[in-house]
Amino acid sequence: MSAKIRFILAVVILVLLITGPFLLTVAVVHGELPGEERASFAAAMERWLPIGGMLTLLALVLGLQLLRALFRQYVRGLMALAESLRLMLGANRNFRVAPAGPPELRALGRAANDLAQQRDALLDDVEARIAQAKAAVEEEKNRLAALVADLPLPVVVCNLDGRILLYNNRARLQAGALAPDAHAAGALIGLGRSIHGVFDRSLIGHALETLRHRLERTGSQPLAHFVTTTRAGQLIRVQMTPVLAAAAATEEEGGAAQRSIGGYVLVMENITKMLETGAQCDRTVQLLADDTRTALAGVRAGLQALRGATDLAQVANAADAIHDEVQILTVRLNRAAQDYASTLVSRWPLEEMLGADLVTAVSRRIEGRLGITAKIDDVAPDLWVRVDSYALTQAMCFLAAKLEESFNIRLVRLRLLGARPAVLLELRWAGTAVSNETLLGWQIEPMTVAGETTPLTLRDVTDRHGGQLSCGRASAIQQSFFRIEIPAAQVQEVGDRAALVQVESRPEFYDFDLFHRAGEDHANDDTPLASLTYTVFDTETTGLQPSEGDEIIQIGAVRIVNGRLLRHENIDQIIDPQRRLRPEGIPIHGITEEMVRGQPTLATLLPQFHAFCAGTVLVAHNAAFDMRFLQLKEDKLGIRFTQPVLDTLLLSAVIHPNQESHKLEAIAERLGITIIGRHTALGDAIVTAEVFLRMLPALADMGIHTLGEARAAAEKTYYARVKY
After folding, report:
1. Spatial CA neighbour of 630 closest among 508, 512, 499, 497
2. For residues 472 and 591, is the Cβ–Cβ distance under 8 A?
3. Active-site residue 656, yes or no?
4. Tens digits of per-residue pLDDT, 614-636?
5. In this structure, are 383 and 475 located in the same domain?
6. Do 264 and 367 lie in a common domain?
7. What is the sign, positive or negative, of the torsion defined by CA atoms of 31, 33, 34, 35?
């Protein structure tokens, strides 16, 4: 039966249900009365009218039920279908409409799925072509990123407004030298942050003007250099290079394209230690020159006395004076040599290298310089160390040379054993062990290997590596050994909690008013959502009652800049709550008493988190819960979280008001997001950030473009009015 016929039948039935009882009553009355007894019509109407009224009322109720069923099937069904179509067309391409309801709606759903299938085939083809076209550009971009990442100096790329567009890991590590304290270090270097938080705005402006003048005068790629003192008291040498953009040529300019500056690259170098070392070298040289001049004057006076001597006593006195001055000069030269060696130690770089490569280099050096056989016995696989490879190789060769000289040892064995945070580098041989007294004497003399002498000593090498040199004998294998401790390279370990899990969210709490907080910043209410910078965060807690003593035990946060989720700019820190954990919560968040013991307290971490999210919009799922914990600590710690707050739970209710669940896992499933690391603070923050990014286009489709519009829409949802 067609939809048109069904609609006509529904209208006819509804009309009959409403008017039928009345017509039936009239028909019955007219059927009882013969044509000549019209006078008794009123009496018959009085008898049948109550029955007809009841039938009419019953028909009205049935008609309303029919209208309600039609509304539910068609109007509500079409609204739910529209939401499903928006999901399928926007956030989740793999989403499909589940055919339900009347035959017409089921047919519409099947047609939409067919169109989506065709759309996906076309999009796959377009994406494949785009991927092919972008392959070369992507390769060049990766080469540039790898080049910048591997540079030994901090590199930061900024636009003309001073916003950071690109930086390498060295720049982020350098933040500790740029910031006055550890809390501010994490807020200095990051995408979208201002370089003016690191260097004075006028200093950057002056360097830019210098670049513009040099560009106009020479037309070549100019450079600008300056040295400045950071807020941490460090001296930083900066080289500024412009990022040039070609402007359109004009007739007045003779058709020549004029290049303009669109940004700049800063290459930074911390020269504090270098200047201190240079100053120390200058003092050493100056003292040596003064002492030498004085000693030479004494020697000259002795020589003059020697020339004028007339007897043996005068000759002896002059010779003794010359000897004393030479002794004094020798002592001063030795002291200057020691001072110079200490400056060499402070200039040594420690760099990461594979342990196997270090042992191989030592083995080849010993065999090549000394002619001694060096075999490699045991090296821990995949072990990375931080060493000055040249100095350490020289030290091992020196020890091997001493063994050959003192004990005629012609075969040595090398071992490298992992024992973080230190690694043990061993030189073994079969024969007599070296006494501690002998080793002590070797440690303080300059190292000489195959006729090549360096002012450095074994003790200098071990001190620079933060370890010590020891000797001993392994009786079980009849071998003696030297053992040097060297630092292991830091390895970023990934915990096993980042597994795929599906755990129910905590209940929604709205006992904290998100929309009327004292001192909240409304300056960005008219700013488009796509232009804002966001800090997406989550907390794990000992329980669900912040007002009854529950505490935060983990904070995780990531940043969103220019619509990009910056996973590497994050905070992921376990916190010591200074109270016992609830046993029922441990299976959910996986944090135990042993894990929180010795970790920073919230009083230490919260100022760092406050600096991390400065100048951004806070985003969280069920944000009232997390914000309540932060609010209760504001007075005690003297900080205020005045940033605007957006809640993905409320935004989900804005976008999909007809969906039953707005839990994080339900939203992620609707949007086609894989949940990883649920109920770790950083894992939840990353999932929330991905959900928020998928929501932005849907909000734009609804006419919600600015921060103020998003907050106003969220405030009107049902969940924003629930109080627990």
Report:
1. 512
2. no
3. no
4. 889 999 998 888 888 888 888 88
5. yes
6. no
7. negative
The helix or strand, by DSSP H or E, that contains position 691, with its residue range, turns out to be helix 681-701
State both tokens at 98: 């589940």
In sequence order, what are the residues at sequence separation of 6 or more whose Cβ sits closer than 8 angstroms to the Cβ of residue 238? 199, 207, 225, 226, 227, 228, 266, 267, 268, 269
| Per-residue pLDDT at 646 | 94
Strands 645-647 and 617-620: parallel
Task: Examine the domain organization and report whether 172 and 120 are in the same domain.
Answer: no
Whether 352 and 489 have beta carbons less than 8 Å apart is answered as yes
Q: Are residues 263 and 328 in the same domain?
A: no
Picking from 88, 120, 140, the residue at the C-terminal end of a domain is 140
Residue 195 lies in a domain: yes
Asked if 270 contacts 280 with a C-beta cutoff of 8 angstroms, the reply is no
Within-domain flag for 276: no
What does DSSP assign to residue 656?
A: -
| pLDDT value for 122 | 85
Residues 330 and 193 in one domain: no
Looking at residue 215, its pLDDT comes to 82
CA atoms within 13 A on the CB side of 488: 16
pLDDT category, 689, cuts 50, 70, 90?
very high
Which entry of 183, 568, 679, 705 is annotated as an active-site residue? Answer: 679
Gap between the Cα atoms of 148 and 265, Å rounded: 11
Are residues 549 and 666 both part of a single domain? yes
pLDDT value for 375: 94
Q: Residue 82 to residues 36, 70, 76, 118, 267: CA-CA distances in angstroms?
A: 64, 17, 10, 19, 53
What's the rounded Cα separation, in Å, for the pair 283 and 289? 10
CA distance 526 to 385: 52
Token representation of residue 275: 């200047």
Q: How many CB atoms lie within 10 A of CB 31?
A: 8
Is there a domain that residue 564 lies in?
A: yes
Decide if 480 contacts 429 (C-beta within 8 A): yes
- Asked whether residue 234 is assigned to any structural domain, the reply reads yes
Cis link prior to 99 (omega < 30° from 0)? no
Longest dimension (CA), the chain: 184
- CATH for 371: 3.30.565.10
Which of 84, 117, 140 represents a domain boundary (last residue)? 140
The number of domains in the chain is 5
Same domain, 1 and 130: yes
| Alpha-carbon torsion angle 323, 327, 333, 336, nearest 10 | -150
Please give the pLDDT value at position 251: 42
Tell me what the mean pLDDT of segment 326-355 comes to: 71
- Domain of 156, CATH number, reads 3.30.450.20
Q: Specify whether 374 is located in the same domain as 477.
A: yes
Q: If residue 617 lies in a helix (H) or strand (E), which one and from where to where?
A: strand 617-620
Structural domain range at position 102: 1-140
Cα 651 from Cα 698, distance rounded (Å): 10
Where helices occur in 348-425 by DSSP H, the ranges are 355-370, 389-407
